[in-house]
Design the sequence.
């Protein structure tokens, strides 16, 4: 069974600064995907970024980038130039065989 | 492109009553998922459909929960009878193919059981 661990329950960052959210996972699968989802207070779950396990290059999407360490089973999210709209709960998720497993999430607050 | 639609957005019922949630996936998406998200936790998969067939319902409490996806498009999730611990947000998601690698989520239905 796959497990996803987000050990930090909450973080706070000043607007315009950079913050890194941590995630580790455990699996015996070789082919899988990793995701970061954002869930603002409005509740809609939004895909932030995805990473294919077979790709060595770290995914980037504008201000969002990941540090994917396959051997260490680590998948952290870096948010650069934080904005007030980044305030949300962030979930790390693992997918294999179309089954998505979520971590417990981390609450990120961006301070003006 | 329209996203995943869900209704109602909110529902309050008393324990032992029944409730149903509706989901309309993104047009053309073959795979549909129902998740339960308890406050402060990540979503937990309840059931996965591929077209109108069930792929995985191992986490669905079948004594009280049921789901169907007639004609392989819309889906309904029913709880009967509801318990206090069923209070949660119920999320629907859809994906393109059988081995979809990205799921797109609806806004969810917040259920409160009193």
Sequence:
């Amino acid at each position: 069974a796959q497990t996803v661990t987000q050990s930090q329950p909450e973080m706070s960052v000043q607007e315009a600064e950079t913050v890194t959210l941590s995630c580790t996972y455990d699996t015996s699968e070789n082919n899988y995907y990793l995701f970061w989802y954002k869930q603002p207070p409005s509740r809609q779950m939004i895909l932030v970024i995805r990473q294919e396990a077979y790709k060595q290059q770290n995914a980037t999407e504008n201000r969002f980038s990941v540090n994917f360490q396959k051997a260490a089973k680590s998948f952290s999210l870096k948010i650069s130039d934080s904005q007030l709209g980044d305030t949300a709960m962030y979930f790390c998720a693992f997918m294999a065989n179309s089954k998505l497993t979520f971590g417990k999430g981390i609450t990120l607050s961006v301070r003006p | 492109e329209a996203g995943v639609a869900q209704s109602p957005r909110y529902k309050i019922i008393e324990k032992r009553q029944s409730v149903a949630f509706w989901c309309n996936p993104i047009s053309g998406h073959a795979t549909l998922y129902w998740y339960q998200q308890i406050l402060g936790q990540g979503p937990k998969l309840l059931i996965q459909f591929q077209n109108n067939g069930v792929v995985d319902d191992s986490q669905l409490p079948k004594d009280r929960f049921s789901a169907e996806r007639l004609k392989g498009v819309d889906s309904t999730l029913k709880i009967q009878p509801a318990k206090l611990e069923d209070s949660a947000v119920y999320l629907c998601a859809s994906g393109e193919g059988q081995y979809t690698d990205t799921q797109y989520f609806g806004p969810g239905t917040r259920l409160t059981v009193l």
